[in-house]
Amino acid sequence: DCQVTFVKTLENEGYTALQLGCADMKPQKVTKPLLGHFEANGVNPKHKLFEFEVTPDAVLPKGTLLNAAHFVPGQFVDVTAPTIGKGFQGGMKRHGFGGLRASHGVSLTHRSIGSTGAREGKVPKGKKMPGRMGGLNATTLNLRVAKIDTQLNLIYVKGAVPGHDSQYIKVRDSVKKVGFNKFPKEAKIPFPTFNPAVLPTLPREISAKLSNKVFVQNDKNKK
């Protein structure tokens, strides 16, 4: 579960934000500065920390637990995660260069990037060249929440999510959708977050109707 580990205020930091931590860690595996940070805020050490800017009326107290029911099925979200690392790659794969000619005088340099520019014997800054590819944060915008599993605390989204399997990702409300375009018209938006006391009364799966199709998980045990 995600938990609020720190609250940034307008008076102290100049902006309002919540720091969320997920996945508890053993204290002996945390550095002393971070361990002191967690102890001062009264929370267990966390494996990963994320920060979300919020409005002053959406601030949550330290120690508040967040679950998948914080999001509404059918709403739009943005997902951020490190992309899959590709290692050191050439210009054709990294930047989509066309390469040199396949024949007519070209030998052994078919996949070369060609000239790097003539500027007083220097390479211009920002020149696209071979180098390490992937492993940087990427954000996929406007993915729709298809379904929520309240028992397993899972969020199903429709679309591609950056990164490899079993890695930490950051999910937030869409920043390019404004007002009611961000949420379904009939949805009850939990503000500032979902009330965990109502969780036992909810069904296990809450689905959204997308493109005239209802997303329902297939039960392999049914015959």
TrEMBL record:
Alphabetically sorted, this entry's keywords are: Mitochondrion, Ribonucleoprotein, Ribosomal protein, Transit peptide
InterPro entries xref list: Ribosomal_uL3, Ribosomal_uL3_bac/org-type, Ribosomal_uL3_CS, Transl_B-barrel_sf
Q: GO molecular-function annotation terms?
A: structural constituent of ribosome
Q: Where is this region: Disordered?
A: 112-135
Query: Where located?
Result: Mitochondrion
What is the name attached to this protein's record? Answer: Large ribosomal subunit protein uL3m
Regarding protein family, the annotation reads:
Belongs to the universal ribosomal protein uL3 family.
What GO CC annotations are associated with the protein?
mitochondrial large ribosomal subunit
Which coarse location class applies to the principal site listed for this UniProt protein? mitochondrion
